Amino acid sequence: MLIKTHAPEETSQVGRLLGNACRGGETILLEGDLGAGKTTLTQGLAAGLGVSAAVVSPTFIILREYEGRLLLYHFDFYRLEGTGRAVDLEFDDYLSAGGVCVVEWPSSAPELTPDDYLLLTIRTVGPAARELVLAASDARHQALIDALSAALEPVTMNPTTATATTATTTTLP
User: Fold this and answer.
1) I want to staple 49 with a disulfide (CB 3.0 to 4.6 A). Which of 14, 19, 95, 131 is the partner?
2) Cα 115 to the chain's mean position, in Å?
3) Domain containing 86: what range?
4) How many domains does the chain have?
């Protein structure tokens, strides 16, 4: 699925809708350049989970936990690349805890990538414009994409300007 956003608020809105769709046990891997909007999307996702605390990037501490209707485990693997520290995380314990795991920079610790996940890649296409590409590795995470697609349908203002190839494309207003 491909979603186009034009402002950080829209990227956050996609995250909120995704958080609304989470039921527990999901793993969402976020890829994108520095400043692409990974933390912005996670802030929206946290809002969808009912997290009231301010959500900030866990870059220097690797993990932040937040309480909402489901626990949110927000990881940032950026500083793990090549350090060998990834094995110390006991990451599998978080995956099986029943909350929602969001991982920024999963490619920095590929050995921790679980079998089941939603990969969400954020591409910068303009000063505030982003393309969000979602791909699921299994049926549970495909259900997240389907729920997000259904939730976005009513807010799509001009579907004729979206260019679909093999993916579903949604442009937010």
Assistant:
1) 19
2) 16
3) 2-171
4) 1
